[in-house]
Amino acid sequence: MTKSRDNVVPHAKVRSLREAIRKVRMAEVERTDVVVELQESERARLELLAEELQDVFQEVPEDDDQFSFQIVPGTTPRLWIDITSHVVMGRDKRIYRFVKDTRLGRTVILETPEIDDMADCITEYIAERVLERERVVEGDWLSKRLKSKPEEAPATHAKAAPQAADGQLPVPNVRGMWGPFAAFAIGLLVGIVGLVGFAWFANPIN
User: Fold this and answer.
1) Which of 44, 95, 101, 102 could form a disulfide with 90 if both were Cys (CB 3.0 to 4.6 A apart)?
2) Which controlled-vocabulary keywords does the entry list (predicted)?
């Protein structure tokens, strides 16, 4: 019995490249299915959040174009609120993360698994942004108003000092200048004559 077992030639393993490629492809397909399922799950949760905010989105003024309100698909689906803030799902794909990009880096405004809490937070954020825009518009209007007032003052002075058609000051009338001078000269002569007469009568010559 022992000799017969020793005489058995062990079966050699047959290696096939085609079979190995098939196994690798199957593994990739399985991983892809998992990733796709996760992405679809994230997108579905973001769509639920967008539905909760639908009425809020519709109440935003039509002339306010700072908001986007759209879900952008990709490796990580995002619900964009405006150009700097969006909602993304956390690592466990169940927690909503409301983040905002600033000059100091990315800031997490709220992280919660509750869709109602996230909807309330986004609503308050939208309200703050709308009010900020109104203040900016009002400030621009007031600034333009204040700048326009100094330009109106020179127009009133222009009437008091008219200029000639060629932009030069008008030449004064020479005849008009002799009137005050003649009156002054006549008054001076009358005064001198009066003084001489007064001196004559006060001290008559004997």
Assistant:
1) 95
2) Membrane, Transmembrane, Transmembrane helix
